[in-house]
Amino acid sequence: MFDLERWQEIFDTIRKNKLRTFLTGLSVASGIFILVILLGFGQGMQNGIAKEFEQDAATSVWVWPGVTTIGYKGMNPGRPIQFRNENYDMSGTLFEDQIENKSPRLFVRDVFVNYGNDALAYNVQGVSHQFQFIENEFMTLGRFLNQQDGDTKAKVAIISNKINREVFQELETPIGEFLDISGIPFKIVGVYGDIGGEREEDRIYIPVSTAQQVFNGADYLNNLSYTLPPVDDFETAVAQSIKFKNELKSYLQNAHMVAPEDTSAIQVYNPMEEAKRFYSLMGGIKFFFWFVGVCTIIAGIVGVSNIMLIVVKERTREIGIRKALGAKPWSIVGMILHEAIFITAIAGFTGLILSMGLLEIVGPHVEVDYVLNPSVNFNVALTTVFVLIFAGAIAGFFPAWRAAKIHVIEALRDE
Amino acid sequence: MIQIKDLHKSYKMGKNSLHVLKGINFNVEEGELVAIMGSSGSGKSTLLNILGMLDSSDSGEYILDNVPIKDLNETKAARYRNKFLGFVFQSFNLINYKSAAENVALPLYYQKVPRKERQEKALKYLEQVGLKEWAGHLPSELSGGQKQRVAIARALAAEPKVLLADEPTGALDSKTSYEVMDLIQKINDAGNTILIVTHEPDIADMCKRIVHLKDGVIIEDKKIEQVRAEQYV
């Protein structure tokens, strides 16, 4: 390997057989290039999907009512279901040891929101103090709702960064300002941001108890949401959330006299379960990318061994001459392998650098849904290059070995 | 220099076995210029291949420069070839992507001679065959006679004990043939032992001794008065 004379001999050969070298190199470099790009996009899709699920807490569970579709216990189908405070309180008691955070939600409709003389077009929602952790809100100013706000039915409101920017940009801080909601003043006590971005920042939060009392909500609730305690292992988390979902659903179905097989009366959305489905789809896609990538590599290896076969065939006479001049069999094998490994390595690394470079430059600018910052693990890419070099060497060895065994006389007769 | 005793060789062709060499005995002294003659199928090429360690004999003794040549494996044969023998072929067998000088230097590479020394030696031998100015040319840019002279320079470069030439003039016209023979005679004059396989009587007459093979046995072995090739050049 470190024999300078051998290197000179190989460089001579390469310099004088440029086309052959180029073709071998091309098949190897393109194999690596395609593999890395594919793996990069596999990773990009995974990043993108992970990002899609970031906007709500991963272990959250959302429940909303619908309309019954099946008659049950003497009740007609087509009956709308209405959640009430007692459902929420009961769920909190029943599943106390399973739940981390819980919040009811009341959509406050038909209200007008004003600030000074400006009419604002934002949603108003009544929630509990724990809703912050369910929606994954972070506070940029002030505080979120607290227990006391709920207990005292305080007239306080939490606005978002977006609302702050759009409405209160001239003020140093919106905290302490009053929003007029259908004639009733609400004091702004906090500004939140949503990890999911501005599209999730169209809401003004007020305590649910206040919303029910002030805006004729009686004890109605629009939906219920929960988070479960985080666990380290994904499978356990999924199992836990499916169990909770089923138990909660059967409690609510019982309470509202809904047939167990009625899917539209009580609907439960469970990001964990969705995530599992996406992740297994993702796993499938990743596997597919790997499969295609590995096939590409195999094609590259077949290409290399094909070219090695041709090289050996083409050089049969030369090998005969070299042997007549006193080349030992191992020196022939060494020469051919050395050349093959050298070319594969150079081409492999060229493909690696080009594809990694492309991912580095283009990757961060990719803005497609479900694809985010495609990138590839450098070690994985490096390993594939070495695998390719190794496989190329193996593929090259057999023709080389056969070449070394060539009978000189026959080789010299070869035209 | 070369001692051969009772050399036998047969090839298996399916069920039949073809007995090519049927007991060859002959010796070559240092500095001889021997022509091995015979019609095709007489066994002359087989004999040369065995002498050149490109093929092995079935039985018999072969001693080259007091070294018994036996139990050859590929590696050992390669070492002996490199050390003892220089080859000149009918079809020149130069490596076509290497220049004349690089071709001449190739056996020295396998002798592990350093690169610089290889180049110097290659030029020296090219000069000896009168092709120093052509050192940088590829074989494709040379005429047949020039190619054969490069091949001879290459055979000489390894400083072998014996030079084996298989129909060295077979691919050349008669004028070029005589030029090549003139070169071979001069190399022989310098003390090199040379064996030439040929079927051309005029080429054989330019050697010092003719060994005639027929059907695997030597039917005639005579020393002759050498015809100098110079006069035809």
TrEMBL record, chain B:
PANTHER family assigned to the protein according to its UniProt record, in alphabetical order: CELL DIVISION ATP-BINDING PROTEIN FTSE, LIPOPROTEIN-RELEASING SYSTEM ATP-BINDING PROTEIN LOLD
Alphabetic keyword roster: ATP-binding, Nucleotide-binding, Transport
Cross-referenced InterPro entries: AAA+_ATPase, ABC_transporter-like_ATP-bd, ABC_transporter-like_CS, MacB-like_ATP-bd, P-loop_NTPase
Spans traversing the lipid bilayer: none
Source organism phylogeny: unclassified sequences, metagenomes, ecological metagenomes
Molecular-function GO terms, alphabetical: ATP binding; ATP hydrolysis activity; transmembrane transporter activity
Record-stated family: Belongs to the ABC transporter superfamily.
Domain ABC transporter intervals: 2-233
SMART domains according to UniProt: AAA
One Pfam family this sequence matches: ABC_tran
Designated name of the protein: ABC transporter domain-containing protein
GO CC annotation terms, alphabetical: membrane protein complex
SUPFAM superfamilies for the chain: P-loop containing nucleoside triphosphate hydrolases (SSF52540)
